[in-house]
Specification:
Chain lengths: 516, 386
């Protein structure tokens, strides 16, 4: 057997992160723009006004440009679970594969079929059928998001499964619990509504540009009105589901919450840090150095957000590693890192001995080792970790990503409120400063989405599956150089395609909503 | 009676059917490989791109679903083959990634790459995508070098790699190109895709000049397809195959295993022969009767039937569908690589929706293909064209 190459793990992670981050540049716009163009076409079908058809068709053209590259990056993501995370694919494939397959069967065919009618069917099917195809295209995209987010939520909070030592994998025992998991439901709405926000920001920003240029004024005013109403509702939903996310993270991934807030030592009535600087002098989790400099805090708010109680105890990084604390939802004393590691190693050893007993056909030993395995399985993944620091994600990256994302979220709410106000007063096109701000908010919309995924995914390191499988035990056995080559090939290819996409999109926007 | 074995067979059938449908839909790739040679003017090339452009997503989606379904139903294949034959799968992915943007972007104002570069991407996808997929599938009969040891995962402490499936050849999949039989099937798939593309163009196009060139092109592609396909099939049927001993599950080499499978499963033999006959009928009648446009449907149905049957022969009747030549006992069968009974049951319920999906695909296909596509149509003011 080969030696474990740590750089292989890191390069495999980098490649997955690269693909996922590129993919997420395109997916949210598909989700948001899809709804907006469908709303416009609905108004067209209801009122018969050609202006709405013209608007819908323009945004569909932009949608098509964006959709193509989303498809291109998506296929790599799916197959990478196999190519770079071979162990993962077997260890949890019995559960994880199902949502992916269902995504293909239920969502991708729906998208692929109805998008062709949406684009090519204007003169070939009735108005009503075309409208249905437009809605079904975006429904397909949203259902696709549902299944992949169900799968992702399961990685963060594995449930509905049982480890089978005979097959050396986790096996599904309750499909409904995967699908109905509150974390999955919340994650789905948070991710999808964040896509709606980006779609709204994009349409509002492009429309603002037309208003600044005094071009296509009627079209731009129609578009910005739809976008800002839709965007305002979407930002409120994002804020609501974001609060839900934080609550679930507090219950299921306390380390992630502690890292998001730079919290090392918990207390009852923990304040929420809304701004601050991560102290570069803090080198160890237990060195008593102040973790956050010049923090701006809201008293007791983290306790409330995490546990719905202003006086609840929120564990910090050091508490989680040392163990021995209780929370209002769990009165048993938390285990320390060392205790979990001991249990993890006991579970792995029990599995090893189980397999030996299996070869020897020793049924008594099988039962004994299985009992040990079952008792300790909850912390199976800790057996692969070496020291406490291995269980702590990158604090500065997560802290800043989280705070910037939240800050941007509130900024988006304010922006849509202001746009709606001036639009209501019918003086929007005179507010040049606001139009410029709206235009330059487009990249911020993308940034917020990427930051969200950094918090979600880097924030759960080292786990591929929470507490059960760390990334170093999830990889494929390939040379690091192979992954390095494909990483740079993907980087070059995706970047070239991104440039190609942006150029075409800018040209299309410059051309405006004229008939082809 | 829904037993575990029944579901394993059922899912292998669905995987086989998806492989058959994918093989048929590769006519898109076949067509892409002849944009430059078949289309002599810009208008003609644009017409070819547009007639294929309404279908490319079906092929792409079927490929993605094929991967997803394999993951869900036979995850040990997913982890062993994709994680091991890394380079073959990565090359296939690259071929399909560059395809995905090439239709939409090639004629848009402000394009970063030239129209011909995007068409070059489509050509690469048509040439390499089909050949590599064929070569990768051929390893289901010729074998690969890997070992599977689930106990590896119990290694911990940062010393040994805990990976269950280990690939034994440092070329990680590229070694498949050193096997002549893999080449034969790869080339057969490539020429099949082109043959189907000719029949598809014949069915869909309304352009006398291009149609005039299809007759010769059909022969030029159908003959090598038949030669490569028959060479692969005859060689495989008479070669030793990877058999599984009932009871002990021991994998061993059996003389003429795949031929035996056909005789021992006469229904498959009938399907296989019927599939081949349908393909031949579609090709030959199209060749002999220029005005006949329905060849794609016969050859397409024949392709689906033949490839589905080939997959079933590889996996049914005590056969290892993904054999290991390094360690026979590591070979994957539909029993040792499948998902659990519960997961297969859940997935089977979902699969009941497939007919419904087929109905709306049929509707959409018909809605868009009421007339034959012409240059005038794609130049219409209100049409979305590539």
């Amino acid at each position: 057997m080969d030696l474990l190459d740590v750089s292989l793990v890191n390069w495999s992670r980098a490649q997955f992160a690269l693909t996922a981050m590129y993919h997420w540049l395109f997916v949210p716009l598909t989700l948001g723009l899809g709804i907006i163009q469908a709303i416009m076409e609905t108004i067209y079908v209801k009122t018969g006004k050609e202006e709405w058809k013209k608007a819908a068709k323009f945004w569909m053209t932009v949608f098509g440009i964006n959709f193509a590259i989303g498809v291109a990056t998506g296929i790599i993501l799916e197959f990478q679970f196999g190519t770079n995370w071979s162990n993962y694919s077997w260890f949890v494939g019995d559960i994880f594969g199902a949502p992916l397959a269902i995504e293909g069967i239920l969502a991708f065919f729906m998208e692929a079929t109805f998008i062709s009618i949406m684009f090519f069917g204007w003169n070939k099917v009735s108005k009503g059928w075309h409208l249905a195809a437009t809605w079904l295209t975006i429904a397909g995209a949203t259902i696709s998001a549902l299944w992949i987010l169900v799968a992702n939520a399961w990685m963060q909070n594995p449930l509905g499964m049982q480890f089978n030592p005979a097959t050396v994998r986790n096996e599904m025992i309750d499909f409904w619990s995967l699908l109905s998991s509150p974390i999955a439901i919340n994650k789905f709405f948070h991710a999808v509504t964040s896509g709606w926000v980006l779609g709204a920001i994009f349409v509002a920003g492009v429309s603002a540009w037309y208003l600044l240029k005094k071009r296509e004024v009627d079209f731009a005013k129609r578009s910005i009105k739809v976008a800002s109403i839709f965007g305002f509702v979407a930002t409120l939903l994002v804020a609501y589901t974001g609060d839900g996310s934080a609550y679930h993270v507090a219950q299921k991934q306390p380390m992630k919450l502690a890292v998001m807030e730079g919290l090392y030592k918990g207390q009852q009535g923990t304040p929420l840090v809304i701004m601050g600087i991560v102290n570069p002098a803090k080198e160890k989790y237990n060195d008593n150095v102040e973790p956050v400099l010049v923090p701006l805090r809201i008293p007791k708010m983290l306790s409330f957000l995490g546990y719905r109680d202003f006086n609840a105890f929120v564990p910090g990084i050091q508490d989680i590693i040392d163990g021995g604390y209780t929370t209002i939802n769990d009165t048993t004393k938390a285990l320390s890192f060392e205790q979990k590691k001991t249990m993890g190693q006991a579970a792995i050893n029990a599995l090893k001995q189980y397999k030996e007993a299996e070869k020897a056909n020793d049924t008594t030993a099988l039962a004994t080792h299985k009992a040990v395995l079952d008792t300790n399985y909850k912390y199976f993944g800790y057996g692969y970790l070496d020291k406490p620091e291995d269980s702590i994600p990158n604090v500065p990256l997560i802290f800043y990503s989280f705070h910037l994302m939240v800050g941007l979220g509130f900024f988006f709410i304010a922006l849509f409120v202001v746009i709606l106000f001036f639009d209501y007063k019918k003086i929007l096109e005179k507010q040049k400063w606001l139009l410029w701000v709206t235009l330059f908010t487009i990249p911020l919309g993308y940034l917020a989405g990427e930051l969200g995924w950094i918090v979600a995914e880097v924030g759960r390191q080292p786990w591929a599956i929470q507490d059960v499988l760390p990334v170093q035990a999830a990889i494929s056995s390939i040379q690091t150089s192979s992954v390095q080559i494909t990483f740079f090939l993907f980087l070059i290819m995706f970047t070239a395609l991104l440039i190609a996409e942006i150029r075409i999109m800018l040209k299309q926007i410059k051309k405006g909503p004229v008939e082809d | 009676m829904i037993t575990y074995s029944f579901l394993q067979h059922y899912w292998w059938f669905l995987i086989s059917l998806l492989a058959g449908i994918l093989s048929f839909l590769l006519f898109v790739q076949g067509g892409q490989s002849m944009i430059f040679s078949l289309g002599k003017t810009e208008d003609q090339r644009r017409l070819l791109v547009n007639v294929l452009g309404k279908k490319w997503e079906y092929t792409f989606t079927t490929l993605v679903t094929f991967g997803g379904a394999f993951f869900a139903s036979f995850p040990l294949f997913y982890s062993t083959s994709f994680g091991g034959a890394y380079w073959v799968w990565m090359l296939i992915l690259f071929c399909f990634t560059i395809q995905a943007v090439s239709y939409e972007y090639q004629n848009k104002p402000g394009r970063f790459f030239s129209t011909n570069t995007y068409r070059g991407f489509l050509f690469i996808n048509g040439l390499l995508g089909t050949f590599l997929l064929g070569a990768a599938i051929a390893t289901f009969f010729t074998g690969s070098e890997f070992t599977v040891n689930k106990q590896n995962i119990t290694e911990f402490g940062g010393q040994l790699s805990p990976v269950i499936s280990q690939w034994d050849n440092p070329l990680h999949g590229l070694e498949a190109l050193f096997d002549v039989r893999n080449w034969l099937f790869g080339l057969a798939v490539f020429f099949l895709a082109r043959t189907l593309a000719v029949l598809f163009f014949k069915n869909r196009l309304n352009n006398a000049e291009i149609e005039g060139r299809l007759h010769k092109l059909l022969a030029v592609n159908a003959v090598p397809f038949l030669v490569f396909f028959l060479a692969f099939v005859i060689w495989t049927l008479f070669a030793s195959g990877f058999a599984v001993k009932p009871g002990t599950n021991e994998v061993f080499m059996e003389s003429m295993k795949y031929l035996n499978n056909l005789f021992q499963m006469p229904l498959l033999l009938i399907c296989f022969l019927a599939g081949v006959v349908l393909v031949l009928f579609g090709i030959i009648k199209s060749f002999l009767k220029d005005s006949w446009r329905k060849g794609i449907w016969y050859a397409g149905a024949g392709t689906i039937t033949t490839v589905t049957t080939l997959f079933l022969v590889a996996g049914y009747n005590g056969t290892a569908y993904y054999p290991s030549t390094s360690d026979l006992q590591s070979s994957l069968t539909i029993f040792n690589s499948s998902s659990s009974f519960f997961t297969l049951k859940v997935m089977s319920l979902v699969s009941l929706l497939i007919p419904f999906i087929a109905v709306y695909i049929f509707y959409a296909w018909r809605a868009l293909e009421k007339t034959h596509t012409s240059i005038e149509e794609i130049n219409e003011k209100d049409s979305h064209a590539y």
